[in-house]
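Protocol step 4 of 5: obtain the predicted structure for the target chain.
Materials: sequence only (see below). No template structures provided, no constraints applied. The aim of this step is simply to have a reference model before the mutagenesis design in step 5. Sequence pasted as it appears in the construct record:
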Amino acid sequence: MIYYVIPRELADKYYKEFQKRFAGVEGVEVIVDRREVDRRSLAEGGGQRVLRDRRRRRMSGSFPDV
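Step 4 output (structure tokens):
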């Protein structure tokens, strides 16, 4: 299924037009974005995205000879 998402602000202008355009196309659905607020803006820290490296750091030093 392919979703053609139209922003809420443009729905009045484009929703019906795109629904007609994709009416005969199988597997395509035109929908209106219903989100009201960006969830990141509600999070603590002012909505700043934090990217972290999840890989573990290697231990410092060297391995003994075997």
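Step 4 remarks: The chain has a mean pLDDT of 82. The first strand starts at residue 2 and ends at 6.
Proceed to step 5.
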